[in-house]
Amino acid sequence: MGEDAKKLRRVPSQERSRKRLEAILEAGAAVFAETGFEAATMEAIAARAETSVGSLYQFFPNKRALFRAVAERCMERTAQRLAELLGDAPASREWEELLDSVIDGFAELITTDPFFRAVWSNIQLYPEYAEADAALENAMVDVTSGVIAVWAPSMEPARREVVARVVVDCIGAMLLVAHREGKKKRPRFIAETKLMLRRYLAAEVSR
To answer: Which of the listed residues 22, 47, 64 is the one where a domain comes to its end?
Structure first.
């Protein structure tokens, strides 16, 4: 894939252009989430954004480039949401309560946020944002490792990183399964994810 298909064609410098770009990204996320990538059209996205198809092409050379921008925005929202869920003093909370809060917070996002639903409903396009996702995962592991260090100060750093990565990857994988299972079965998988990680971490951390 050429670099022109991956990057924003024009970086907005004026407030009006920035607002138009935001509207396009919001519309793209909604359409990708509702219809799937293959069925989505630039015309439908333009109509949703209340702009012209020409405006879309001013920013993105094609639909795939637009999806990649939507996915990268999803990564940004993920990092922001994690910071919100952890708060300013995560280690001051009981680890079980904090774990449940993080899982519930992301479970809500994958059902209500169009950027999350767009990405998780089109997981076949993962290569489009794999690099951004890998960077996000590493950042989340670092944050999680830092929190675990307070609860398990004697744990070796290498071991702590492994435990943190297991937690981060397990939550991500199980939320994807919960998303695929649908609204009716989703709560069961969320509950099982909490139980599984509680049992895993109970042997690793202490107050």
So the answer is: 64
